[in-house]
Design goal:
Layout lengths: L8 E4 L8 H19 L4 E4 L1 H8 L7 E4 L3 H7 L4 E5 L4 E5 L7 E6 L1 E3 L11 E3 L2 H4 L11 E3 L5 E4 L3 H7 L1 E2 L5 H7 L2 H13 L2 E2 L1 H10 L8 H12 L4 H10 L2 H5 L1 H4 L16 H11 L6 H9 L4 H4 E3 L5 E3 L2 H15 L4 H12 L12 H9 L3 H13 L6 H12 L2 H4 L7 H6 L6 H15 L6 H14 L10
Bound molecules: adenosine-5'-triphosphate (ATP) and magnesium ion.
C-alpha cells in the first residue's frame, strides 16, 4: 500500500524537444494553456501519462493538465475553444488556437466522493494538487510535472521509484481502488504489458480476488483495454496475465476454452490450441495491428466445439473456421466492435484454412483472394499460424511471390462485360445475368479473353448455343 508522504519528492527533469511534429504541436499547445493558467494566478501542472512517459524517456501521446482553476474559470480563459466534457468531474477540453483538431484535457484538482456504481464517483470535490494525486489509479500515473525552470517532477506516492523498479502499484489500498472502479483492473494489466512492468504483489492479489467484477465493466471499455493489451509489445504476456487473473475466463471464455484442447501432434507439435495461439501472439509483427491481433486470438475458437476423432484416431476439427467465424461475430458484437471490424476479423477467421489449398488454386481463385480487402491481414495470419506450429512458410512464400508479381490491374481488372451486355442479347433480368457475368469475370481473371471483343464473342456463343444452358469455357 502506498503511504501519503507529507513532503513530495522533487526530481529535476529535462523536457525533450519532441522532434515528432504532432507530439511537438501537442506539447506546445498544452504548454501555452498551462502558462496562461499560471499567469492568471492558478496552479497548473502536466499530469498523468505524459509525465510518466517523460520520466521513462518515452514519447507521450497527449499532454493532460491538472489545475486549481475551476471548470468555469478554465472555460472563461479560453473563450470559444473550451468544451466542458465532464462537468461533474471538472474536465474541460481546450482546442488548439492554431491546431483546432488537437485537444488538451484540463482537469480541476479533485477528490472523489464515494463510488456507488463501480465506475464513477457519485460526487467530486474540487481540492488541492496533493489530494488530486490520491484519486489517480497507479503511482506511475500520479506524478505531476512543473515545467518551470528547472522543470521538475513532483511525486507524492513513490511513482518515481516504481518507474525505476518497473512496478505497477495502486495508489492507496488496491482492494479499495479496484472496488471503486473495476476498469482499473484491466488498466493494471494494460499498463503492465505496454510498459513492460511487473504488477506489485498487493495490487496483483487484489486484482485476482476482485477479477469476477470485471463482468460489470462497460463492453466498450473492455474492448478498448483488451485491444490495447493485445496490441502491446508483449501480447503473449497480456494473455498470461488475463489468464492467471481469470479475467480471460470471464471476458473471453471462448479463448479460455482453448486451454486443454488437444491437436494432432504431427501438425501441432507445440501442444494445445491455447499454446498455439500464445505462440502466434509472440510471432505477431510489431507494431501490432488490432484486426490481426484479434484474428490471431480468435482464429481457432471453433476448435473445442468441433473436436472429433476419425476412424484412424486422428483428431479433426471439421468446419472449425466456419463455426469459429460465427462465434467471433457474436463475441465481437458483445464487445461492441464496429461492423467493419467484425466483418474484417471474421473474414480472416472464416478463410484461414483456405490458404493450405493455395498451390492448387486456379489463377482466377488466387486473384479473387488477392483482391479481398483483408488479404494482407489474412496472409499475415497465415504466416504466424505456421510459425506457431510447424514453421513451414512454403505457402506464404508462394503467395507473396504470386501477389507481388501481379499488378493491381491484373488482380482486380475492370470487368469486360457488364449487365447491359447480357440483357442486350435477350437474357431477361434475373439471377441468370449475375451467373453469366460471374463466369465471364472468372474467365477474364484466367486471361481467357485478350480483349472485350473476345469476351463479347464468348457471350454471344453462350446465348446462341442455349439460353438455358450452363455457359461453357471458350474453345
Ligand atoms: P495513455 O498513455 O494510454 O493515455 P494515461 O496514463 O495518460 O495513459 P489516461 O487514460 O489518458 O491514461 O488517463 C490519464 C490519467 O488519468 C492517468 O494517468 C491517471 O492518472 C488518471 N486516470 C485515468 N483513468 C483512471 C481511472 N480509471 N482511475 C483513476 N485514475 C485514472
Ligand atoms: Mg493519456
Amino acid at each position: 500500500m502506498t503511504s501519503l508522504t507529507e513532503q513530495p519528492v522533487f526530481r529535476a527533469v529535462q523536457i525533450p524537444e519532441f522532434q515528432d511534429s504532432t507530439t511537438g504541436n501537442r506539447f506546445r499547445q498544452a504548454e501555452s494553456i498551462l502558462q496562461k493558467l499560471r499567469q492568471t494566478g492558478h496552479e497548473a501542472y502536466f499530469c498523468g501519462g505524459c509525465v510518466r512517459d517523460i520520466a521513462m524517456g518515452r514519447l507521450p501521446k497527449d499532454f493532460d493538465i491538472a489545475t486549481s482553476a475551476l471548470p468555469e474559470q478554465v472555460e472563461a480563459l479560453f473563450p470559444g475553444r473550451a468544451d466542458l466534457v465532464g462537468k461533474s468531474f471538472g474536465v474541460v477540453v481546450v482546442r488548439g488556437e492554431h491546431h483546432s483538431h488537437l485537444h488538451t484535457e484540463v482537469a480541476t484538482f479533485r477528490r472523489d466522493g464515494p463510488y456507488l456504481d463501480g465506475r464513477r464517483p457519485s460526487s467530486v470535490q474540487f481540492t488541492s494538487a496533493r489530494e488530486d494525486v490520491h484519486r489517480r489509479d497507479f503511482t506511475v500515473n500520479a506524478l505531476f510535472l512543473d515545467p518551470g525552470s528547472p522543470s521538475q517532477i513532483i511525486d507524492w506516492v513513490g511513482g518515481l521509484e516504481d518507474i525505476t523498479s518497473r512496478i505497477i502499484r495502486c495508489v492507496g489500498n488496491p482492494h479499495t481502488r479496484f472496488q471503486e472502479d473495476k476498469l482499473r483492473m484491466l488498466r493494471a494489466v494494460r499498463f503492465a504489458v505496454q510498459l513492460g512492468f511487473t504488477i506489485h504483489a498487493d495490487t496483483w492479489n487484489a486484482l485476482c480476488q476482485l477479477s469476477p467484477d470485471v463482468t460489470t465493466i462497460a463492453p466498450e471499455r473492455v474492448r478498448d483495454e483488451l485491444t490495447k493489451c493485445f496490441t502491446s509489445p508483449d501480447p503473449a504476456r497480456a494473455l498470461d496475465l488475463l489468464h492467471d487473473s481469470r479475467i480471460l475466463h470471464l471476458l473471453l471464455p471462448e479463448v479460455a476454452a482453448l486451454e486443454g484442447c488437444q491437436q494432432p501432434p504431427q501438425f501441432h507439435p507445440e501442444g494445445d490450441v491455447y499454446t498455439h495461439v500464445r505462440l502466434m501472439l509472440q510471432h505477431m509483427p510489431q507494431p501490432a495491428h488490432p484486426i490481426l491481433a484479434w484474428a490471431i486470438l480468435l482464429h481457432d475458437i471453433g476448435k473445442p466445439c468441433t473436436f472429433s476423432t476419425d476412424s484412424s484416431g486422428r483428431i479433426r476439427f471439421n468446419g472449425h473456421e466456419i463455426v469459429g467465424a460465427e462465434m467471433a461475430e457474436r463475441l465481437l458484437t458483445r464487445l461492441r466492435f464496429s461492423n467493419a471490424d467484425i466483418e474484417a476479423i471474421s473474414t480472416c477467421i472464416r478463410l484461414h484454412m483456405s490458404f493450405k489449398d493455395a498451390p492448387q488454386m486456379r489463377q482466377a481463385t488466387l486473384k479473387k483472394m488477392f483482391a479481398r480487402p483483408t488479404f494482407l491481414t489474412e496472409l499475415e495470419l497465415h504466416r504466424v499460424d505456421c510459425l506457431g506450429c510447424h514453421g513451414d512458410l512454403t505457402i506464404h512464400e508462394y503467395l507473396t511471390k504470386k501477389f507481388t508479381d501481379l499488378s493491381r490491374e491484373e488482380i482486380r481488372p475492370a470487368p469486360l462485360l457488364r449487365g447491359k451486355d447480357v440483357l442486350q442479347l435477350g437474357i431477361p433480368p434475373g439471377p441468370r445475368v449475375g451467373e453469366i457475368l460471374d463466369r465471364a469475370y472468372d474467365l477474364q481473371l484466367e486471361n481467357a479473353f485478350p480483349d472485350r471483343e473476345a469476351a463479347f464473342a464468348w457471350l454471344r456463343k453462350q446465348i446462341q448455343a442455349n439460353l438455358e444452358d450452363t455457359p461453357t469455357h471458350p474453345a
